[in-house]
Amino acid sequence: MASQYIELKEKTMKHYATLTMCAASLALAGCGGGSSSPTAAPPTGVTPASYATVDAAAVAMQDTYTDANGDVLAGVTVASETEVMNAANATYSGYVGGDLTSGGRLVGELSIAADFASETATSTATNFFHDTDGAYAGTLSGAGIIVPGAPGAVPQLSTTIAGDLTNGGSTHATSIGLEGDFIASGGDVVAVAGLADGTVGAGVLFTGTFAAEK
């Protein structure tokens, strides 16, 4: 009888010790099953930014509205003066990309905040990638004007984005002018697209296009 009592007491003490250890390590490991606590899985369907992904998206959007020279395609409707004047303020998101005289292509993500009421625009561009040199760190920004009834070859949007872009230990003072027109669909000003032209560093010319949608 005494031996049974001692055996029961030993089992109870061992069980208590196990429970104590489980409580202390609950955040690190589950008890009983012996499996680790679940960790957050990376988001699915999200592709890390790269030149290939950014450029593919840029080309697809650009080809919807303009040709390689930034001229609006046949069948695409440039917004009328009335449509631009009556448009609600909006932010347009898209891309700016172009060829460099030093070689290769540079493309980045673009945001244009259009204030139609005051006929002004504020633009930023970041997340730049070069087809061979990889990522360029830095942000370009600037302000511009909106001309609702721009005649002939005069663009409805004119703005310049500027700043420093860094790659491979070198800093490139960059300035890119954006000139384009607003695109209308069903009476709504849905996009803006056109020519992008400027410099990336000393003596390196940038020639390309931009497009952005709301």
> Total helix count?
3
| End-to-end CA span | 84 Å
Unreliable stretches: 1-47
CATH architecture of the largest domain: Beta Barrel
CATH class of the largest domain: Mainly Beta
Specify Rg, calculated over alpha carbons: 29 Å
What is the overall shape? globular
Average pLDDT metric: 84
Counting DSSP E segments of at least 2 residues, the number of strands comes to: 9
Proportion of residues in extended strands: 35-45%
Helical fraction equals 10-25%
Report the structural category. Answer: alpha+beta
Major sheet attributes: 8 strands, antiparallel, barrel
Count structural domains.
Answer: 2
Per the CATH scheme, the topology name of the largest domain is Porin
Strand order of the largest sheet: 1-2-3-5-6-7-8-9
Helix-strand pattern: HHHEEEEEEEEE
What does this structure look like?
- It is built from 3 helices and 9 strands.
- The chain has an 8-stranded antiparallel β-barrel.
- It folds into 2 domains: 1-39, no CATH class; 51-213, Porin, CATH 2.40.160.
- The longest helix has 23 residues, at 2-24.
- The protein is an alpha+beta fold and 214 residues long.
